Amino acid sequence: MATSLIGRQLALHLQKNLWLGAPGCRYVSKAAAKAEVEFDYDGPSMKTTVPGPRSQALTKQLGDIQNVGAVNFFCNYEESRGNYLVDVDGNRMLDVYTQISSIPIGYNHPALLKLMTNPNNLSTFVNRPALGILPPENFPDKLTESLLSIAPSGMSRVQTMACGSCSNENAYKAMFIWYRNKERGQSGPSAEDISSCMVNQGPGCPDLSILSFTGAFHGRTLGCLATTHSKVIHKLDVPSFDWPIAPFPRLQYPLEEFSRENAQEEARCLEEVEDLIVKWRQKGKPVAGIVIEPIQAEGGDNHASADFFIRLRRIAAKHGCAFHVDEVQTGGGCTGKFWAHEHWGSDDPADIVSFSKKLLTGGYYHKEALQADKPYRIFNTWMGDPSKNLFLCEVLNVIRRENLLEEVARSGKALINGLYELQAQYPGLLSRARGQGTFCAIDVRDDATRDKILVKTRDKGVILGGCGDRSIRFRPALVFKEYHVHLFLNIFNDVLTQFK
Ligand SMILES: Cc1ncc(COP(=O)(O)O)c(C=O)c1O
Question: How confident is the model at residue 37, as a pLDDT?
Fold first, then answer.
């Protein structure tokens, strides 16, 4: 009875959400092909400035309960569809930021809604298990079908977690455990290890470190925060570890014009990495692991060459440090490959690769050696959520069926070419257009102008994100087609003319 009721409601919801009734958008360039995303709207539609009156009232209401300083506006997720996010004031916006890069195939994708109508899936949605102790029967199969089917080269083990920070935090623990076990060899922990760890002292709580990079963002939990260096607001007033921080290359654009300078810059950073590893060992705080994003996202979309990463991975191996690639933001197809590190062309890219966001569940892949040796060392109550694996299986089906990685490569090319054109058109305003796939960014002359552009673009029906000091980042879903790129570029151009 309950099952059929839920089924009926979902069927109605599906019908409503599959409706394609939006009028055409006046900003569409003549060159743009028609929208091909079957469940998409065909353009933005704005009724108020954003946040509109209903959003403002709700922000006030929520403000009595929580800090609402970061709330942009309130959303109507029922009406949102495909590449379009609808707000509570009825504004429909092309979403080129997708919930901080975490919506893989658009809003209310029919394939995902359909999963909810399958009675066989209901118990997975209703009963969230303590996965580490009581996993469901289909859990190994679902992991194989979803996460293992896209495992990075050389990795056949995966640990699911909740969010990105939780994934990195546990990946760091795995690196520390691995490092100490390596040091101890065959002998287990000493009596001193065991007694000292309970009072936060060495040798049980060893003075090991993780090397990270300037501008990095790996999350906001205590361990992750010690490796995050993107913004003061994340760090202020929170105690941290004395861990080494190496410079991340600051590349000059266009890359073809500055290849010599950029190679020198990368060599300088790598040299500094080795120096820091040696220094920290001498300080009695050996580096157990190196963590890096393939493209620094929150810190300003900073890129480095494949050669830089491959050489860094070699340095890690040479000094006995684990190499952790944080693909929380870059993973899931937005660079045109499933993992950004695939662009390096290495068949041994890392010891650990963490993920979250577009993968819908958090977690990390790891080499066999980084498997914790005992239960409960890497553990929490939920250890992920099997319902997210169901969704992920379907997301992967859609990506494969619709060749979405090829689409991303195509749209990414149109996007970066459009950004190059705009930066040529507005030289005092825009610079350093860069990107891989649709994972693109451009710099604005200063942060105040960047922030104004973001607001004005949103009022014209496009949601973008900021990153670093003065960059705009583009993080559309994988169903963002060339048509949407042209739609966006036209609107963006309209806004930019006001800032000339
Ligand atoms: C590269 C990277 N690592 C880690 C995180 C933290 O993820 P979460 O916000 O889910 O904790 C983020 C979040 O933006 C990220 O971009």
Answer: 65
Cβ atoms of residues 360 and 386 within 8 Å: no
Active site residues: 217, 326, 357, 381
Tens digits of per-residue pLDDT, 127-160?
A: 999 999 999 999 999 999 999 999 999 999 999 9
Which among 359, 376, 400 is the end of a domain?
Answer: 400
Query: What are residue 86's DSSP bridge partners?
Result: 92
User: What's the number of domains the chain is made of?
Assistant: 2
**Alpha carbons 407 and 410: distance in angstroms, whole number:** 5
Q: Whose CA is nearest to atom 10 of ligand 1?
A: 164
Percentages helix, strand, coil for the chain (3-state, rounded to 5) are 45, 15, 45
Q: Say yes or no: CB of residue 163 within 6 Å of ligand 1.
A: yes
Any idea of the CA torsion for 232, 237, 242, 247, to the nearest 10 degrees?
0
Nearest CA to ligand 1 atom 9: 164
> By C-alpha distance, which of 470, 474, 483 is closest to 443?
470
- Mutating to test ligand 1, I would choose from 166, 172, 217, 234 the residue with most ligand atoms within 8 A of its C-beta, which is 217
* 426 domain-assigned: yes
Cα first-last separation, the chain: 63
For ligand 1, say whether the CB of 328 is within 6 Å of any of its atoms.
yes
Indicate the pTM of the whole model: 0.93
Does 271 lie in the same domain as 193?
Answer: yes
Report the CATH number that the domain containing residue 173 is assigned in CATH. Answer: 3.40.640.10
pLDDT tens-digit map of 338-390: 999 999 999 999 999 999 999 999 999 999 999 999 999 999 999 999 999 99
Domain limits at 423?
53-109+404-497
